[in-house]
Amino acid sequence: MTTKKLTIRQKLLVAGTLFGMFFGAGNLIFPVHLGQMAGRNAIPAMIGFIITAVGIPVFGVAAIGITHSDGLQTLAGKVSKGYGIFFTCLLYLTIGPLFAIPRCATVSFTTGVAPMLGDSGAEWLYLLIFSAVFFAFVLFFSLRPGKITVWIGKIINPIFLIFFAVLMIAALLAPGAAASAVEPVAAYQSDAFFPSLIEGYGTMDAIAGLAFGIVVIDVIRRMGVTNDDAIAEDVLSSGLLTGLLMALIYVVSILVGAQSRGLFELSENGGVALTQIAGHYLGGVGQLILAVTITFACLKTSIGLVTACAETFDKMTGGKFSYRGWAILFTAFSFAVSNVGLSAIINYSIPVLMLIYPPAIALITLAFIGRFFGHDRIVYIAVMIPTWIAALFDFMKTLPGSAQTALHLEAPIRFAAANLPLFDKNLG
């Protein structure tokens, strides 16, 4: 009896679905800004960024498949049942209402509305109004799940990708400066590889991959593949196809970002950089198309994330607090967070990502090599304890200076700097 596997066409469909889930606000703004910072050191920056923004996310999706898990909670539960609940909550809150969902609204505002305001002193008010409307739509569709996200995904994503391709080609054909002539910022002067690894954390795709894995597995099962080993193989191959497309987009975006330094000063964030580049090469119309397509793409992503988070917490609480209640709570909280602004969201997300990424990477690694030790719980625990200790030190180090002082963290940070290898590169 032959085991059914996906055809090439089906793998492309699964890869397209996975790309649609992965590619959101962070995937647009971080590579362009990275290019501006890395300048002539763009190549090592590309390598570092692709490892954490493409490689680890693809293996994160595959980790769910290869362990035949029915979701993140089951995979993390290999450490312990309580840890499975804790890590699932932390991860979903990070890719949900704490950072990723608010960031979708602020990226849309930064690329669409902010450029039209000029030096208006009331930008905070416009952000408040815009985010209120944005999250009203998010809540409306999250409470009425239907074909809206599919429709937007099928129409808006292709339009955006076509427009984005035109923008990138226009920028490559008429660069503001050769990337080799652009001076890197201080952090990227001597070694662009390690800072770029950490910059890749900002996409949040590695932790999102652990959440998306079960969705991809369900899609493959609906296509008629029932054998667990065949599913794991199809998840990995489809993920690799997605990874190739994302890597191509990142390489081009980083290069265009570096070349844009011949036209613009280093931007405050990637949303500003992308808007400036679109305005320069495609004029006001191009800027408007960019704003509209990004807004709809971010709206789709936000609806999907609110839905996923609400469903997950509804399931974890056994329905004691309804899906509707979770959806309203997460939307309201995301609205509040979005009003601190894009740069603030990025800055505050860094310590949390420094905390959650190491255990996520460790969990993915253990999933792949688990067959060599029979997925023994003792091994999972023995790996996770020192991983969390190192991650806590990195978390402390990347907190704002005022928080470090208030919490008296200077001594433990000095201890880690003296004793933890690679701590100076944020890779303790």
From TrEMBL:
Cellular component terms (Gene Ontology): plasma membrane
Q: Where in the cell is it found?
A: Cell membrane
GO function term, MF aspect, one: L-leucine transmembrane transporter activity
What's the protein name? Branched-chain amino acid transport system carrier protein
* BP GO annotations: isoleucine transport; L-leucine transport
Pfam families to which the protein is assigned, alphabetical: Branch_AA_trans
Family to which this protein belongs: Belongs to the branched chain amino acid transporter family.
Q: Which organism is it from?
A: Dysosmobacter segnis
According to its record, how does it sit in the membrane? Multi-pass membrane protein
Q: What keywords would UniProt list here?
A: Amino-acid transport, Cell membrane, Membrane, Transmembrane, Transmembrane helix, Transport
Superkingdom of the source species: Bacteria
Function, in words: Component of the transport system for branched-chain amino acids.
Transmembrane regions: 12-30, 42-62, 83-101, 124-143, 155-181, 201-220, 240-258, 278-299, 325-346, 352-373, 378-396
